[in-house]
Task: structure prediction
Amino acid sequence: MIQSLQGIGMTSSRTRERMINRLMEQGIRSNKVLDVIRNTPRHIFMDEALASRAYEDTALPIGYNQTISQPYIVAKMTELLLASSGRLAKVLEIGTGCGYQTAILAQLVDHVYSVERIAPLQKKAKDRLWSLKLKNVSYLHSDGGWGWPDYAPYDGILVAAAPPEIPEMLLQQMAVGGVMIIPIGKGGSQQLQRITRTENGYEVEKLEPVIFVPFQSGRK
Ligand code: SAH
Result:
């Protein structure tokens, strides 16, 4: 682990800086977000065979038919979450996956509550965040369609898999003034949406086309 954290080859600061420049060209503006991405080793979140490609602008397989989200999408969703509200004390993440998005969030908000339906993926993610000394994260092995009612309401909710429509339980677990960033839709045509909970209801903004793995029910 120690060795893989050091700056050899693919992990060099030049490789990471190239990724940051690309994110800026793609429209990411938040320096806070860019700094955290710059300083988080993305390659430790994937299998060694793919680690050399970790800083490319692409989603890559992490096993169990799932993928680590593309750097742009992680940056974009994080920026949207941070821009929308005041202080983010509690953030609910659905789809821990390899834990990369979790690690980015943990450095920008007070506490992350992360739900994943595939137990072995979450176990590995947990170990990685622990090795990075990111301890303000709680993990739940569950179907994220139920959210995590014990700690609701949340100031922010970030969903990393696409359901056909917004899960009702997640809406119910948003604080007033809170935001949810979520891809909605089937197959190749999904749309990133931002939902804001107001005093009297919800505002929905449709943002941009995206491609995510499907939101699936049940636990594995
Ligand atoms: N941010 C993660 C994304 C992983 S892909 C990363 O960069 O690694 C999406 C993840 O959502 C997968 O791990 C998948 O198992 C999980 N997922 C899909 N449907 C889910 C559900 N209903 N509840 C919890 N997790 C779910």
